[in-house]
Amino acid sequence: MSANGNSQLRSARWFAPRDLTGFVHRTAIQAEGISQYALSGRPVIGICNSWSELVNCNIHFRGLAEAVKRGVLQAGGLPLEFPTISLGESLMKPSAMLYRNLMAMDVEESIRSYPLDAVVLIGGCDKTVPAQLLGAASADVPAIMLTGGPQQPSFFRGQERGVGTDTWRYADDLRAGRISQEDFDDLEAGHKPSAGHCSEMGTASTMTSLVEALGMCLPGTASIPAVDARRAQAAEATGRRAVQLALHGPRPSEILNAEALDNAITLLMAIGGSTNAVLHLLALAGRVGVDLTLRRFHELSERTPRIVNVRPSGEHLVQQLFQAGGIRAVLAQLKPLLHGDALTVTGRPLADALANAREPDGDVISTLAEPFDAAGGIAVVQGTLAPNGAVIKRSAASPELLQHRGKAVVFEDIYDMGARIDDPNLEVTADSVLVLRNSGPVGAPGMPEWGMLPIPAKLLKAGVRDMVRISDARMSGTAFGTAVLHVAPEAAVGGPLGLVRDGDPILLDVGAQRLDLEVSDEELERRVAELPAREPKYRRGYGRLFLDNVLQADEGCDFDFLRWLPDEESQREPYGLLSGWQGGW
Fold first, then answer.
1. How far is C-alpha 487 from the chain's CA centre?
2. Which domain holds residue 70?
3. Cβ pair 377, 271 in contact under 8 A
4. Which of 133, 190, 224, 241 has the fewest CB atoms found within 10 Å of its own CB?
C-alpha cells in the first residue's frame, strides 16, 4: 500500500508522493514513533488544544484530548494533537479580548499549514471558543468543536453560588459594609471548586451554547458539566465524528451561513446570554461573508422571548440547565423561530437533532407561550451618543432604568474611575449616569470588561443597587445591572462619548432604541476643537498590529485584513506549492 492510500485526503498531498518531499514528510511523523502503516490512507485529525496552566477553565483539556484520540482511533483515523495560545479572562491584562484575534490567527495558520484532514477544536474559557471558531472558519478545513463544560457550583453560607454573578453582589456588600473581610475571605476559599468555565450563563457558557446552535458541535454536548463522565464520552464521540468529517465533510463554509447565525442569535436572546457574544458573532459573520449588523440582533431579540432562567438573567446555574435537558431542549422549544434545515457537523439538519429533546420543566426552561420575559435578553440602542450603536443586557437590568434621563458623571478612563468612584465628595446621585470612556478596542486598548462600573460607595451605603452606566468597554457575561456597552464609535477614535462632560443630560430609552447626548450640535463642534491629540498605547509588536487594524465594536473587533474576501477560496490552502523540495533539516 502507498504511504497514503486515500488520494482524496488533504494529508495525502504531504504523505503520498514517492519522492524526497514525501520522504521528508513521512519520516517527520515516524520520528515520533508512529509507523508508516498509521499513515496508510488514514485521515489525519488535528486536535487543537487550548490547554494551559494559566487558564483554570481549560485545565482538564489534556484528559479531553486523550478521549478525543480514543474516538479518532476507534474510527480509523490518526490523531495528532497540537497546542495554540490560550486565553483566560481572569489573568490576562489588559484583556483576553486583546488577544482573541491573535489566537484566531494561530488556529487558522496551524490548520492551514499542517497535513490535517479535519480538526477537533477544544475550547472553554470565553475567548478561546470564538477564537477557534474564527480560525477554523477562515481555514475552512472540516472542523468540529468540543467545549470544556461549566465547573461545579460553589457553596457559601449553605447556598449554591455562581462564579461571577454572586461575586459581584458580595463585592458590593463588602464595599457597603454589609459583610466583613473575613466573610469575603471565606467566599474566596471555595469560590472555584473544580475545572471548567463559569457556572452561570456568562460569556463562556453563552459561547458554548451558541456553538450548538451554529451546528458546530455534536447535539446535546454544549452544557455537560466539566467533571461529568459524559463530557469525556462526548469527547470520544467527537473524535469519531471528526474522522467522518474528514472523509465526507461538511466544511465550516457549508455550515456557517446567515441561517446558522440567525439561529445562534435567536438562542442568545432566549438564554439571556452574554453581550460579548454580539462581538464574536459579528466577527464570525465577517469571516464567512455574511452581512450581519446590530440591527439584526435587535430584530431577532424583539421576536424571541427569554425562556431560560439562569443567572445573571435568572435564578439557576448551567448545571441545572443541563439537568433540565440542556441547550438541545431549549432549541427544541425555539424550533418555530429557527432555520431547522440549517446543516450541522452531523451532516444532517439542525431540526433532526431536536426530535427527542426533553420537555421544558417550567422552572429552568420554559416555553414560547409562557416565557420568563416577552423579549430577548439583549437590546440595541442608537443615537447621538452611539451613532453606530450600543448594546444592553436588558434581562439583567433594572426595568425602571430602561427609560431614564440623568446627568453625566464622567470618568476619563479606568484609572480615573478607580481613583474617584468611592470619593465621598464625588458629585453623584442615584439618578446620575456614570460614563466611562477610553475603554474600547483602541482606547484601553483591547476593550476590557470594565463596563460594569461599580456603584459609588456612598450610594451603596445608602441602599442604591443599580444605576445607568455607559461605556465603550465590554462587561463580563456573569455581570448584571443597567449597563450600556460597546458604544460605537469609541471615544478614542473620535466618537461622541469623548465629548461628554459632567452634568450633560443623557437619555436612555431602550424601548425606543435611543441613547442620546442632549447637547447642541454647536456645543459639540466647539468641544471637538478642544480635544487633545492622542498618543498610541503601543508602538511595536502585536499591540501595534492590533491598534492599526482592529475594527470597532459594531463590526466585531476583528482585524480588517482577516475578513472574508470574494476570492478567498484560493487563499485557504498552504502558502506555496506542495511539489518539489519543501523540506528542511
1. 18
2. 43-152+194-302
3. yes
4. 190
Residues 148 and 181 in one domain: no
Q: Please check whether residues 402 and 488 belong to one and the same domain.
A: yes
Query: Assign residue 307 a region: left if phi > 0, alpha if psi is -120 to 50, beta otherwise?
Result: alpha
In a domain, 336, yes or no: no
Report the distance separating Cα 300 and Cα 303, nearest Å.
Answer: 5
CA 307, chain centre distance (Å): 21
Write down the residue that cell numbers 477562515 correspond to: 138
Torsion 265-267-269-271 (CA) sign: negative
- Rounded distance between C-alpha atoms, residue 27 and residue 11, angstroms: 14
Whether residue 456 is found in the same domain as residue 383: yes
Q: What does pTM read for this prediction?
A: 0.95
| CA–CA distance, 466 with 430 (Å, rounded to integer) | 8
Query: At CA 286, angle to CA 285 and CA 290, rounded to 5?
Result: 55
Asked whether 453 and 436 are in contact (CB, 8 A), the reply is: yes
Interhelix angle 258-271/326-333, rounded to 10 degrees, is 100
Q: 253, 180 in Cβ contact below 8 A?
A: no
- At 577 the pLDDT is 45
Distance, in Å, from the CA atom of 45 to the CA atom of 29, rounded to the nearest integer, reads 14
Q: Considering 286, 302, 318, which residue would you say is the last residue of a domain?
A: 302
C-alpha closest to that of 500 among 428, 417, 411:
411
CATH number, residue 496: 3.50.30.80
Q: pLDDT tens digit string along 14-45?
A: 999 999 999 999 999 999 999 989 988 899 99
Is residue 144 left, alpha or beta, with left meaning phi > 0 and alpha meaning psi from -120 to 50? Answer: beta
